[in-house]
Inverse folding.
């Protein structure tokens, strides 16, 4: 696919999607391509998981924030584990946890 020109690739991909969803898919509001294989750290791997016993050792800590840093990704999702819907669920859940923590925090004095 990456041997095609950018325009040929875009057309080929959108025509393929249009085969499922109809001609409206030929004119997306946003079009974004990502070459997973060129990602520096994952190199295109589908997802990440612990080695044997890793969940037992680290599982209880994997969702614990470190100071103001919260962790959120599909590899930590209970539902939708390692899939896009898990990433969305985790994003929403983590955003809600951050808002709740901010609501509990004492108001800054001026
Ligand atoms: C080849 C392939 C095929 C797949 N097919 C499917 C499928 O058909 N269906 C499905 O449901 N799931 C599929 N998946 C899995 C799905 O893509 C992932 O589960 C999902 O994208 C994970 O979302 P995420 O938000 O947790 O992480 P990511 O999508 O990996 O997002 C993390 C982001 O953080 C950025 N980032 C990393 N480090 C830093 C940093 N230090 N500073 C700033 N930004 C940083 C990265 O660039 C990336 O944009 C596939 C995955 C691959 C690789």
């Amino acid at each position: 696919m990456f041997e095609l020109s950018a325009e040929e690739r875009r057309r080929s991909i959108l025509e393929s999607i249009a085969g499922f969803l109809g001609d409206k898919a030929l004119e997306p509001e946003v079009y974004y391509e990502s070459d997973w294989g060129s990602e520096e750290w994952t190199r295109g791997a589908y997802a990440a998981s612990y080695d044997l016993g890793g969940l037992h050792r680290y599982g209880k800590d994997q969702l614990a924030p470190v100071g103001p840093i919260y962790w959120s990704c599909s590899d930590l999702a209970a539902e939708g584990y390692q899939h896009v819907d898990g990433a969305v669920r985790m994003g929403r859940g983590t955003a809600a946890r951050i808002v709740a923590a901010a609501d509990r925090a004492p108001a800054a004095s001026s």
Summary: The chain is about 40% helix and 0% strand. The radius of gyration is 20 Å. Residues 36, 44, 46-47, 73-74, 82-84, 87 surround flavin-adenine dinucleotide (CB under 6 Å). Residues 84-104 form the longest helix (21 residues).
